[in-house]
């Protein structure tokens, strides 16, 4: 993975974790995997300030932090479209995962985590953030954005089930089809869902 990152542009990561030892371990793992750790914070408020100043490619936030917790920081960072967010959570905080998603987190890691857990979480976060950016550039209104995202998510699910595609492959297929046929991604997604519905409904 480190070679892949080195060959491509190295992703810049900001870490916010109030336990210095965990922060150190996390930074070491990231560097070993070919990421650049551009900033570290011990509380959510500092994390938000550093994210605004440094404009990293990704922010990793622990939930429990002083001054401002990770969920509030995620809301500010993700809501401001500064960077995708990965949330660190303990096993006892599983109930907070939904709140983290609502705050704009793209992925989460459950502590204690291994290096093998880290890269997939980062890649999922980067991929989802990229997808949302593409969709939002296509649609202006907030309500329509949400509906578009829902349709595309459901259509991706259909393609993944029917053709054994990965999530990024399904998104790229919808994106490419939209460009090829000069349609919006919402129109392509709606067609996929309409076809699926037609197949599911028995002929009368």
Summary keywords:
204 residues, alpha/beta, 5-stranded parallel β-sheet, 9 helices, disordered N terminus, Sig_transdc_resp-reg_antiterm, ANTAR, phosphoprotein, Response regulator
Summarize the structure.
With 204 residues, the protein is of the alpha/beta class. 60% of the residues lie in helices and 13% in strands. It contains nine helices and five strands; from the N terminus they run αβαβαβαβαβαααα.
Topology overview:
Blueprint: H1 2-7, E1 12-16, H2 20-32, E2 36-41, H3 44-54, E3 58-62, H4 70-79, E4 85-90, H5 96-102, E5 107-111, H6 115-138, H7 142-163, H8 167-180, H9 185-200
Parallel strand pairs: 1-2, 1-3, 3-4, 4-5
Would you give an account of this structure?
It is a single chain. The N terminus is likely disordered. Helix 3 packs parallel to helix 4, helix 7 crosses helix 9 and helix 8 crosses helix 9. Strands 2-1-3-4-5 form a five-stranded parallel sheet, sandwiched between helices. It is of the alpha/beta class and 204 residues long. The termini are far apart. The protein contains nine helices and five strands; from the N terminus they run αβαβαβαβαβαααα.
Please tell me what the overall shape is. elongated
- State Rg: 19 Å
Which ranges are low-confidence, i.e. pLDDT below 50, for 5 or more consecutive residues? 1-7
First-last Cα distance: 53 Å
Largest sheet: 5 strands, parallel
The ordered H/E elements are: HEHEHEHEHEHHHH
Domain ANTAR: 132-193
Modified residues (4-aspartylphosphate): 62
Protein name: Response regulator
Organism: Actinoplanes hulinensis
